[in-house]
Amino acid sequence: MIGPLGRSLIAAELPVLREHDLTMWGYAVLTALDEQPMRTQAALAESIGADKTRLIRVLDGLQQQGLIERHADPADRRANLLSLTPEGARVRTAAQNDIQRKEEHLLSRLTAEERTVFLRALDILSSDSGA
């Protein structure tokens, strides 16, 4: 049951992301950089579960859109540090708000009790402690 739900959520998010000129990976990058403002490309790739060589294309696109910046890491000139630009933060927030509205619409089909139990179960199942 979780697989079809996941696919439905992704299908609902894709049009929202397109409206903001983002891909799923682009949104994942912006969200991760919002949570931890400065990180290396390797650390970012690991945190979002992406192959760091494939992530380069996503980062190039986000940089061309003015959503992220890359700077040489002063501690390791071979590495780049990534950060959100103010426009990147604005786009991430707008996309997240639109996605949350879609999620809210989906969850509105549940009673308050069902919703509480469902969200608690998702939290438990998605935690790393049970893996």
Automatic annotation (TrEMBL):
Keywords: DNA-binding. It comes from Prauserella marina. This is DNA-binding transcriptional regulator, MarR family. Signal peptide: none annotated. SMART domains: HTH_MARR. One of its GO terms (molecular function) is DNA binding. The keyword Chaperone does not apply. The keyword NADP does not apply. Transmembrane segments: none annotated. GO terms for biological process: response to stress.
